[in-house]
Amino acid sequence: MKKLRLAASILALAALSACGTAKNENMAASQDGSVAMKEQGVDTHSFAKPEEARVKHVALDLAVDFEEKVLRGTATLDLELAPDAKRVILDSKGLTIRRVTDAAGNTLAYSQGKGDPVHGQPLSVILNGAKRIVVHYVTSPGAPALQWLSPEQTAGKQYPYLFSQGQAILNRSWIPTQDSPGIRQTWEASITVPEELKAVMSGEMLTPEGEESDGGRTFRFRMDKPVAPYLIAIAVGDLAFKPLGPRTGVWSEPAMLDKSAYEFADLEKFVAAAEKLYGPYRWGRYDLLVLPPSFPFGGMENPRLTFVTPTAIAGDRSLVSLIAHELAHSWSGNLVTNANWNDFWLNEGFTTYFENRIMEEMEGKERAAMLADLGWSDMEKAIAAAGGLEAPDSQLHLNLDGRDPDDGMSDIAYEKGAVFLRTIERAVGRPAWDAYLRSYFDRFAFKPQTSAGFIEDMRANLFKDDKALEDKIGVMRWIYQPGLPDNAVHVQSSRFAAVDAAARAFAAGGKASDIRADGWTTQERVRFLNALPRKLSQDQLAALDVRWKLSDTGNSEVRFAWLMLALGNRFDPAVPSAEQFLTSMGRRKFVDPLFATLKAQGDWGLPIARRIYAKARPLYHSVTVGAVDKTLDWQG
What are the C-alpha distances in Å from 351 to residues 19, 226, 288, 633? Predict the structure, then answer.
C-alpha cells in the first residue's frame, strides 16, 4: 500500500502544469540501476497553473461560419480553485477574445500575455471569486487545429467540410482552456451549422437530427467522463451513418459510405477482441468517421468517434490494423493518458503493443508477427533518424523543453515502446502480464500517468518488490537511456524468410516473373519492397512495376513503399504516380518522407518536389504543412 500511495502522489504532481520559467525535472538512472525519483511533474507545453485554478468542465456554444472560416461563440468553464486563487490561466492560440464574464454576466478583467509560435498565448482571467467563467471569442481563419475544405476538396463536391485535429497542443486554437493532457475535463457542446450539414463530435450525440435554430441547425453533445483536452474533436459536413453492430458504426460522406462500411465490417468483433484482453470498453459507442483525404494522420483516437484516413480503405480489408490501433487507444491513451508530452510513449507504446494483441486475436499469430516484424524495422529507421543509438531522442522518456511536442511523435514512442512491453511480457509470462495490464487500466482509469508512476505501479503490482526481476528487464535503461537494450524481444515472422530470400534473388539479377508472390499479404509485399537494396537499375524497377502494377495500386502502404524506392532511384515513370498520390491525400506518414526522398535527389528530385508541393500544399492540414515546409525549406 505504501508503494501505491507513492504512485498516487506522483500522479497528482504530474497533473500540475506550468510553462515558461518552470523547468522539467527528469529522472536520472545511475549505472547500478538506482534512480533519483525526481518526477517530471511539469507540462512545459501549457501556460496553465492548475495548482491555483483548474478547469474541470467545458461547455461550448459555437456557430460554424464557412464563409469566414471561423467558429464564434462562448466557452463556459467550471473551475476548481485553491483557497487563495485570484486568477485562472488558460491556453489560447490566435483567438480573438471579445469579453470574459462570470456566470451572472459581470465583466471580468483578462489579458493575453506574450506567447510564441508553438504554444500560442496565455489567457489570464481575474476571477473576483467566480468559479464559472464565460469566454466570448472568435477563432482565426488559420487556426491550426481546424481545416476548412471547399466543396471541390470533398468526395461529394457539393458542400464544404470542417474537421479538427487537436493532438498535441492545437485545440487551444479553437477552445480557450487548459490544453494539457494531465488536466482532464468533462465537456458539452452546442454547435450550430448550416441547415444542410451535420455536426459530429467525440462525445455522446444528444440530438442526432439537430434542432432548428437561427442560422441553421444546432447539434448538442456531451462527454461525461473526464478526458484530456486534445481529445475534444469536431467535424461538420455532408455526413451519413451506417450501423455495423449494436454499438458500432461508420460515418462518412455519402459517396464513401458503402466502401467504408465494407472495409470496417468487423468493427464490432474488434471491440469484443479488445475487451477479451483488457476489460470492458468504457465509452459507450465506438464509431468511425472516415474523413476527406487531407486528414494528416492514419487515425485519431477521439473517444466514441475515431477519425480515420481514407488511405486505410484498400478494398480488401488489409489495412485494418490501423483500426485496431485506434481502438486500443480507448484503453491506452484515452482511459490512461500521458500526463505530459515527454511521456508520449505511454500512449503510443502501450497502444502499439495492444494493437498487435488485437490483431493476433482477430487474424492469428502469424499475421501479428508480420506486423510486429515490420514495426521492428520502423523502429530501427526511427532510431537512425533520431541520430543513432546514442541520441537522446532514441529514449522513451524525452525532454521536449523548448521544442514542439510533435518532435516526439516518432516510431520510437510507438515501436520501441511496444518492444519494451513485449520484453516485460517475455520476462514475467503472458498470463501475469495480461493480468497486470488489465488491473493497471482499472487502477488508473480516467487519470494521467507518467513514466515514474508506471514504474512504481509495476514495482507494487507486477514485480512485487522483486528487484532482481526489475533489473533483469532493465526497466530504467529502457525508459531513461538512449538506444536499444540487448534483451529487446524481436518478434520475427516465419513467412518473411521467404520474402527476404525473394528480395535477395531479385536484387542479384533474378526476374520479376520468378517471384512467387501469389497469396502474399500486404505486409509481405511491403516487406519485399523494403528489403530490396536502395539502389536498383531502371530495368529492375520497370520490371517490378509491370509485374505488380505498383504505380497504380490502390493500397496506400504498398504504393508508399514502392514510391520511396522508385523516387530514390530517379525512376521517371513513377513521377506521375507520386504526383497523383501526393495531391490526393495529406497523410503526413506518407507525404513528408516522399518529399524528403525527392529533395535528396538534388537537381533531379528537388524541382519535382517543389512543383508538386506548390500544387498540394493548399490541400494539406497544418500538421502536414508544418512538417513539409521544414523538410523543403519552403519559403512560399
Answer: 28, 20, 18, 33
Q: pLDDT category, 378, cuts 50, 70, 90?
A: very high
Phi, psi of 248 (to 5 degrees): -135, 155
Contacts of 621 (CB under 8 A, 6+ apart): 147, 165, 294, 295, 296, 586
Q: Alpha helices, DSSP H only, in 396-531?
A: 411, 417-428, 430-443, 451-461, 467-473, 475-480, 496-507, 522-531
Residues in a beta bridge with 221: 189, 205
The answer to whether 396 and 382 are in contact (CB under 8 A) is no
Look up residue 44 and give its three cell numbers.
512545459
Backbone angles phi, psi at 354, to 5 degrees: -65, -40
How large is the average pLDDT for residues 162-176? 97
Q: Which residues are designated catalytic?
A: 326, 414
Give CA–CA dist 220/197, Å, rounded: 14
One-letter-per-residue 3-state SS of 27-86? CEECCCCCEECCCCCCCCCCCCCCCCEEEEEEEEEEEEECCCCEEEEEEEEEEEECCCCC
Provide the pLDDT for residue 487.
98
Please list the alpha-helical segments (H only) found in 484-574.
496-507, 522-531, 538-548, 556-568
Has residue 6 got a pLDDT over 80? no
Mean pLDDT of 24-53: 59
Binned at pLDDT 50, 70 and 90, residue 8 comes out as very low
Contacts of 603 (CB under 8 A, 6+ apart): none
Work out the average pLDDT over 462-488: 96
Residue 41: predicted pLDDT: 59
The 3-state DSSP class for residue 391 equals coil
Distance CA 250, CA 299 (A): 14
